Amino acid sequence: MMNSQQVSATVTRYLDMLGLTPEEPTEEFLKKMMTAHLSTFPFENISKFFYFKKQNFLPSIKEFLNHYQRFQFGGTCYILNSNFYHLLQALGYNCRLIMLSDVHMGVLVQLKEYPGEELYADVGSAMPLFQPLRLEKEMGNKIAFGNEKVVLQRDEESQEKYRYLFYRDGKLVSENPWVFEPAKTYQLNDFSHCIQTSYLPDSTFMKILRCQLWQPERNRSLSLVNDRLTIRYRDGRKWSTKLSSVYEVMEVLKDEFELPDLPVHDAIQVLHELGVNVFDS
Q1: Distance between CA 223 and CA 225 in Å, rounded?
Q2: Cα–Cα distance between 113 and 100 in angstroms, integer?
Q3: Residue 232 · residue 225 · CB < 8 Å
Q4: Taking the CA of residue 32 as centre, how many other CA atoms within 13 Å lie in the half-sphere pointing to its CB?
């Protein structure tokens, strides 16, 4: 456990990276943090190959911040949401972890503005979750950016479960959306198996190159999937191009994502060693 002085220094450093200063644990400050997180720490698996080689599958909050400062790492859900959860706790939010379909980590938060409710927060799903979503009220259970939308909906077969639905261009992206039970409580250790499984060679983020960053101030989001760059705009427009070399990928990360320090060359090399050619699509 860190003493209060160490917690304060870590929180201050974390918030400084987000361009924020400490505030009371309100809904408005939570929105600010979620928006800043999505536009600061990329959803990416480039760091995953770094941790894979180090056999350090879940960095501490200090390592997370150090690696962002040095490499501009973000991470996938387990790294991003676990550290965001620690930040919320340190700032006085009443929150807990939630598991979705044994493959995703989210956070449930109690806010004084919504007595008796828990809201869903998530900065690690590559989705436009700039604010927490309510489970019980249809007016607050969805959020959209351009042609992408997330909806939390009670499961038709079980009233204790909810479904995380992701739509793009009006169509449900996955036929098997994530399912979660808000009544269940999870500790970080409960995710150990899921985290280890996510590093197996045949797991989703060990077979592709992925980087996502939101730029709400520019009304757009950036998505890199292997050799394909896609820019989606708040007004629904979309632009996409195919990249043909490691150099072009590096230039896109530098010029568009403004993440010049991400060691993408190393990640592509590890993927190659695992039998994946990101330019063969």
Answers
A1: 6
A2: 25
A3: no
A4: 15
This prediction's pTM: 0.95
**HSE (side-chain half, CA atoms, 13 Å) at 107:** 29
Classify residue 47 by its DSSP letter.
H
Selection from 153, 119, 147, 90 nearest residue 31 by Cα? 119
CB 66 within 8 A of CB 56: no
Nearest one of 32, 192, 3, 31 to 90, comparing CA atoms:
3
| Domains, the chain | 4-195 (3.30.2140.20), 200-273 (3.30.2140.10)
- Residue 75 Ramachandran class (φ > 0 left, ψ -120 to 50 alpha, else beta): left
Compute φ and ψ for 60, nearest 5 degrees. -70, 170
Q: How does pLDDT run across 84-108, given as a tens digit for each residue?
A: 999 999 999 999 999 999 999 999 9
Nearest alpha-carbon partner for 188 in 34, 75, 91, 60: 60
pLDDT tens per residue across span 214-230: 999 999 999 999 999 99
Q: Residue-wise over 98-122: b if at least 16 C-beta within 10 A, else e? A: bbbeeebbbbbbbbeebeeebbbbb
Residues 6+ apart with CB under 8 A from 259: 42, 72, 211, 213, 253
Report the C-alpha gap between 120 and 162 in whole angstroms. 11
